[in-house]
Amino acid sequence: MQHETDIFLNFEQTLAAGGCQREWLLGLIEEEVIVVQGQPEHSEYSGFQLARIRRAARIGRDFEASIPATALIMRLLDELEELRKSQPALSD
């Protein structure tokens, strides 16, 4: 979902803002953690995508996870968030 106030960065700006290496970001895109239209180096990245990149970086660093392992963890977290959204709040 895009908002008028969302930021958009080019590839180089995204690398700098995310504090990540080129090959690592390309690996995230290959694993479909980040979805882009066209060639990654010529795409725009939203604030939402930047947040996902930063989250993936924390996961990779904290768990010393490879890119495929980081992608798996991200998918599992996404599924967990979707399940929580679909379940009504449980009362005590």
Describe this structure in words.
The protein is mainly alpha-helical and 92 residues long. The protein has one domain (8-86): Multidrug-efflux Transporter Regulator, Chain: A, Domain 2, CATH 1.10.1660.10. The protein has 4 helices and 2 strands. It has helices at residues 11-18, 22-30, 47-63, 67-86, and strands spanning 8-9, 45-46. It has a two-stranded antiparallel sheet. α3 crosses α4. The N and C termini lie far apart (34 Å).
Quickly list its features:
92 residues, 4 helices, mainly alpha, single chain, Multidrug-efflux Transporter Regulator, Chain: A, Domain 2
Short description:
About 15% of the residues are buried.
CATH-level-2 architecture: Orthogonal Bundle
Q: Number of domains in the coordinates? A: 1
Percent of residues in helices:
55-70%
**How many DSSP E strands?**
2
The SSE string, one letter per element, is: EHHEHH
Q: Termini distance?
A: 34 Å
- Quickly give the structural class: mainly alpha
Poorly predicted spans: none
Strand order of the biggest β-sheet: 1-2
Average pLDDT works out at 92
SSE layout and pairing:
Blueprint: E1 8-9, H1 11-18, H2 22-30, E2 45-46, H3 47-63, H4 67-86
Antiparallel strand pairs: 1-2
Helix pairs in contact: 3-4
Protein name: MerR family transcriptional regulator
Organism: Kingella oralis ATCC 51147
